[in-house]
Amino acid sequence: MKELLNGILILLGAVLVTITFPIMFVYQIGYIIYFTFKQRDLRILIVGLCLMLDGLLACLGHVLKHIGVALDMAWNVCGEILEDMFTPVESTYFGRKNITVSASIGDLENRNKLNGLGKWFSKLLNFVFNEKEHAKYAITLYNFNRKFQKEKKKNIKEKN
Predict the structure, then answer these.
(1) What is the DSSP string of 1-12?
(2) Which of 17, 97, 118, 137 falls between 20 and 30 A from 81, CA-CA?
(3) CA pair distance 84, 154, nearest whole angstrom
(4) What's residue 63's pLDDT?
(5) At residue 40, what are phi and psi to the nearest 5 degrees?
(6) Up-side HSE of residue 3: CA atoms within 13 Å toward CB?
(7) Is 88:115 a contact under the CB 8 Å cutoff?
(8) Contact between 103 and 139 (Cβ < 8 Å)
(9) How far does the chain reach from its first CA to its final CA, in angstroms?
(10) Is 86 in contact with 105 (CB distance < 8 Å)?
(11) Residue (of 148, 3, 150, 21) closest to 77 by Cα position
(12) Res 146: pLDDT
């Protein structure tokens, strides 16, 4: 629940700041045009607009990536069917919040508990994400982040 409230607060803050975006957008284009005339170099206009477009597309890619990860985490929370399809083991990360399907598969792969379909699915993830061991990388990253968060909380408690 706290994740939802935190997400709502961040979104509201971003929406408030985004109200100024049209002003910023128009100003940026005006500045590029002004600087182009000041320097009398048409390349400034082309490069400036290309850089602006590249930045906006990078932002869109960032948003889409985070939506994809959030969906992946939702699938994991409802992942009992995947657990039943990929392993006979009942003690897995499937069904837990804040972890992806890839990380859940990676944990099973590290423990050598995947059946044939699970191994095939892990290879499919490797192909889709163009990584040698995508699922193993995902669980390593998850464990690292979890350890980092515990240390961060411990340091905050020690300071208080």
Answers:
(1) -HHHHHHHHHHH
(2) 137
(3) 37
(4) 94
(5) 55, 50
(6) 4
(7) yes
(8) yes
(9) 26
(10) yes
(11) 3
(12) 86
